[in-house]
């Protein structure tokens, strides 16, 4: 396993809450996939979950050594949570960038409280990480 890059981000949950209040569905559909929206809206304190995914998307880009630019879509990065473990699913231009760098997997930590959400992402080259290996 070779580390390609590390990304981290922190955001105020209040900021994401304001964006949702001001822009509603337009903001949500521009930034989050339908799966992510369902996941967050099914949770207590949905805003914290939305904020954690925002931080995660930023951290994924940083782990790839990429800043936000034209041609990228927020929805090209999706977080799926299974049994407490978050997985990253890429599509579109972000997937192409990761493939060019031979990124096989991401190790992800998302966390949040009422005030802040954070994310830490390791982009790795090599065989995907499987539990117990």
Task: Please work out how many helical segments DSSP would assign.
Answer: 4
Whole-angstrom Rg: 14 Å
Helix-strand string: EHHHEEHEE
Q: Quote the average pLDDT.
A: 92
Q: What's the N-to-C terminus distance?
A: 12 Å
Largest sheet: 3 strands, antiparallel
Query: Which structural category do the helix and sheet elements fall into?
Result: alpha+beta
**Unreliable stretches:** none
Describe the strand arrangement of the main beta sheet, using strand numbers. 1-5-4
Strand element count: 5
Helix content: 40-55%
What is the overall silhouette? Answer: globular
Kindly estimate the percentage of residues that lie in beta strands according to DSSP.
25-35%
Q: What attributes does this structure have?
A:
two-stranded antiparallel ribbon, 5 strands, 133 residues, globular, 3-stranded antiparallel β-sheet, alpha+beta
């Amino acid at each position: 396993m070779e580390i390609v890059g590390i990304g981290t981000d922190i955001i105020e949950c209040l900021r994401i809450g304001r964006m949702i209040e001001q822009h509603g569905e337009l903001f949500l559909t521009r930034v989050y996939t339908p799966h992510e929206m369902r996941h967050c809206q099914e949770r207590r304190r949905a805003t914290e979950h939305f904020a954690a995914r925002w931080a995660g998307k930023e951290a994924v880009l940083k782990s790839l050594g990429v800043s936000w630019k034209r041609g990228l879509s927020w929805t090209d990065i999706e977080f799926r949570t299974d049994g407490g473990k978050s997985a990253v699913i890429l599509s579109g231009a972000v997937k192409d960038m990761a493939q060019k760098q031979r990124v096989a997997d991401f190790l992800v930590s998302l966390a949040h409280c009422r005030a802040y959400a954070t994310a830490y992402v390791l982009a790795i080259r090599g065989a995907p990480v499987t539990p117990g290996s």
